[in-house]
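Researcher: We're teaching a course module on how sequence relates to structure. For the next exercise, students receive a sequence and then see the predicted structure as tokens, so they can try to spot secondary structure elements on their own. Here is the exercise chain.
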Amino acid sequence: MNLIFRLILQLITSCLRPHQSLMESATLRMRVWPADLDINLHLTNSRYLALMDLGRIELMLRTGMMLKVMKRRWLPVVSIASIRFRSEISPFERFTLHTRILGWDEKWFYMEQRFETTRGVAAIGIVKGLFRGPNGNVPSRALIDLVEYEDVAEKSEFLKTLDAFEQQLKVTDPTE
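Model: And here is the predicted structure for the students to work with:
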């Protein structure tokens, strides 16, 4: 985490923001600072992924999940993060990062993270992750029960499409 000062500010101010449901979008309002820039003088590609970490932390804070998972020593782990850049975010420009859960299966959570400026969506990321505890991977159901979320829908079309895409990405051994 190379954004320690933003994280500290986020943790301090999190108690001022309202609690939310697991399926609501968590938002963070930020600004591009000089340390966020690349040689092209816009938000550097690698910073998007680091800021997405803060977005997922915000979601955990706002849903009341953070303290509960820390107490159990469960750690969030990202398996896949894919991002599509649509437009640049310039120096000192304000933007909002929206993080929401798209769905889950037995093992994985799937999230969308959108970077929005006054000009519209600048980038969209899709993240696949899970929680790992002292005894291994934590089933999604355990986390859903932990935050007392009851409205569990069946697997969405998005998740079915993502599963098919992941199958195409898997590396197979040509000798088998």
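Model: If you want an answer key for the exercise: The chain has one domain: 13-168. Residues 45-62 form the longest helix (18 residues).
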